[in-house]
Amino acid sequence: MTQTAAETTDQRVFVDxxxxxxxxxxxxxxxxxxxxxxxxxxxxxxxxxxxxxxxQLNACAFCLSLHTTRALRxxxxxxxxxVLAAWRDTELFPPRERAAxxxxxxxxxxxxxxxxxxxxxxxxxxLSEDEISAxxxxxxxxxxxxxVSVLSKHPVRPRTATPAG
Length: 165
Hints:
By secondary structure, the protein is mostly helical. Helix content is 70%, strand content 0%. It has nine helices and no strands.
């Protein structure tokens, strides 16, 4: 079976597989950032919320699937994950998480200077400097992984479904 021109041009290089040394360096950065986040007192759930929100903004299906699973395993609720894209419109996220999410968004969308200033001011009011730095590093790292997955077009494969009860 031959491929159409559109199918051929849409085939992507999995840059993580094509350049494994660069990907290992990114993975090492992520490991260091996890330690920075833990040392700053960011719990696993908050880190995963940041990862998911950044991935939502970047429309990275692969990372959304991965980090939603990780968040659920870390104890996050399906309810909060379901409304995360509209976190500003709900009371489900306390001030510390709201500040972290706003700062993660400002890191992901840095061209909005007003939003960035507002997010930074909110972060300063409830987060320590170590926490601010950790949130920014988590968002920067997630943005990098999103680019790898989006540009490689990593597939999201269905998991084995469990019957609804």
